[in-house]
Amino acid sequence: MSPYVLLILAVAAERLAELALSRRNLAWARTRGGREYGFGHYPFMVVLHIGLLVACLVEAAHRRFVPALGASMLVVVVLAQVLRWWCITILGPRWNTRIIVIARLPLVKAGPYRWMRHPNYVAVVAEGIALPLVHTGWITAACFTVANALLLRVRIASENAALAHALAGTLPPAPPPAAVAP
Fold it and tell me: Is residue 26 part of a domain?
């Protein structure tokens, strides 16, 4: 198995760990009145991120490895993971892959949140560009970047609206139970 395949498998394992943590944090949030918003785009986000990993492998089979590009992009991938897990650690049980809000909880302003509102998305963007380029996957990097930009426009708008309502204590009505995924 090539080192690049191992890297993609490691990223996939990391994503599974994130989903397990997200599920645990969802249970924590629900016991505190947490509600999910913006759930309509979530399946597209899952498909996009799975597609990124699959496309990385497919395109790598047709590309020549360029060591200088691969090494520099691997550094970016590692730094993106560091930023991602810094965000997860700082948010603690409030972190989730879904948009879950609990009324009147103050915004976190520690760690990378001191400097920007959505640092986790910086990690997602950096990784989405760098991971394919580790093995010269420029088509995957370009396609993911465009699709992810469109998705993040919806995601960040949904998240900002939900957070504004949560901070004000004016959360809109919860969606019908049938629409809420576990």
Answer: yes
Whichever domain contains 66, its CATH number is: 1.20.120.1630
What are the pLDDT digits (tens) for 48-96?
999 999 999 999 999 999 999 999 999 999 999 999 999 999 999 999 9
CA torsion angle for 65, 71, 76, 79 (degrees, to 10)?
130
Helices (H), the chain: 3-31, 42-60, 67-91, 119-133, 138-168
CA dist 27 and 49 (Å) reads 23
Is residue 110 domain-resident? yes
**Residues 61 and 121 sit within 8 Å (Cβ to Cβ):** no
Q: What is the tally of structural domains in the chain?
A: 1
Full domain range(s) for residue 46? 3-170
